[in-house]
Amino acid sequence: MAINKNHEFEDLDGVKCAIVEKNIPAERVKFLKKILEFNRYTVVVVKSPPPKAAPVTATTPAGDASPVPPTPSAPETFTIGVTDVRFNRINAVFGRSLRTPDGHIVTLAFWEQKETVSNDEVPYYEKKF
Predict the structure, then answer these.
(1) Cβ contacts of residue 14 below 8 Å, gap of 6+?
(2) Rounded to an integer, what distance in angstroms lies between the CA atom of residue 129 and that of residue 16?
(3) What's the predicted TM-score (pTM) here?
(4) What is the DSSP string of 7-75?
(5) Would residue 16 count as lying in a domain?
(6) 105 part of a folded domain
(7) pLDDT band at 62; cut points 50, 70, 90
(8) Which carries the bigger pLDDT value, residue 117 or residue 62?
């Protein structure tokens, strides 16, 4: 049960975890795991269940049901969590409590992988636009 949508937790491989992100590709797991482990969190990664799809039957113009070709399988996704159930990714990023391995503060743009280097010179709330 979550406190709110931004603070979810559940059992991953039998361990109670705060959910960091769900349904993410392996590259993103690697990126987040590196940051979280550097910040001394114990990371748990599990494969996300495949999305549920409703059975589909196609009909021909004559109204006959014909077999549907198999749909391509969904890409493999993962759920990543940390064993510290107090962890909240929103608070961690905006509270500037996470660091990169090179010593910079993790910014929102870096967390979302929009920037390759964390530019933490000026906090987001002091930037002039």
Answers:
(1) none
(2) 41
(3) 0.75
(4) S-EEEETTEEEEEEEEEE-HHHHHHHHHHHHHTTPPEEEEEPPPPP-----EE-TTS-EEPPPPPPPPP
(5) yes
(6) yes
(7) low
(8) 117
What sign results for the dihedral spanned by CA atoms 54, 57, 58, 59? Answer: negative
Domains identified in the chain, total number: 1
CB atoms near residue 122 (< 10 Å): 10
Is 120 inside any structural domain?
yes
User: Domain containing 40: what range?
Assistant: 9-52+76-126
Query: What is the Cα–Cα distance from 90 to 32, expressed in whole angstroms?
Result: 14
- Kindly state whether residue 83 falls inside one of the protein's structural domains: yes
pLDDT tens-digit series, residues 73-119:
778 899 999 999 999 999 999 998 999 998 899 999 999 999 888 87
125: nearest Cα among 95, 83, 92, 84: 95
